[in-house]
Predict the 3D structure of the following.
Amino acid sequence: MFETMKVVDGTAFALTRHLRRLRFSADGMGMLPPDDERIRHAVAAVLDADPDAGKLRITWSSGVGPLGSSRGGGPGTLIVATEAGSAWPVAEAVHLCRWARNEHGALVGLKTTSYAENVLALEAAHDRGCSEALFANTAGDLCEGTGTNVFLVVDGELVTPPLSSGCLAGVTRELLLEEMAVTERSVAPDEFTRSSEAFLTSSTRDVNAIARVDDMVLPEAPGPVTVAAQAAFADLCARSLDP
Ligand SMILES: Cc1ncc(COP(=O)(O)O)c(C=O)c1O
């Protein structure tokens, strides 16, 4: 499993929440939990060595194992790596991909390295000039992006798919839900046609407007609710780097 976070002034943002989710993912995988203190120590050492880092990733695996799908019983492997921060367009074009997220799958809610479906979907998005792909789930409801959660303003209400849609409990999504009035409800993909604005959230984007969904251009990007969400998130970051 893994966690990716932005680095602000040499600090990994919301590290405590990311470590909590890493532990949740390890538990869901039936793996030994990672040792938080060991990870914090490794994160500090890696950030010391790369003062310009903009992004940090923690990967925790079950370690050396046999060929095949069974696991070895050895100690886990911890990898902490940094790179420059991501640069996202001010407003993004997203592609609604043809593959479904399985909201009944074994990995729902876990942030594991089994991301090959995301790789394909993102490639399909890039081929269409988009920076993110969105999935619907097997029920046909909107779920999430390859590395993002999605929010829409429909009839003046800010809505986002519930965790039961199969989406990841994004740290950015969670923080925003604590800061703003958001309704978690099933969202049909065609609600984009009557949404006044929409945005994506992720640890490297924070809050980023959606300008179009395939050929459908949204009325405003960023619209007023997106701007308010961006301001609320910026305020939160200014208050604490480990909210
Ligand atoms: C599948 C998926 N959904 C949503 C998100 C957004 O989560 P977060 O805000 O914690 O970055 C991610 C993050 O990479 C993700 O991989």
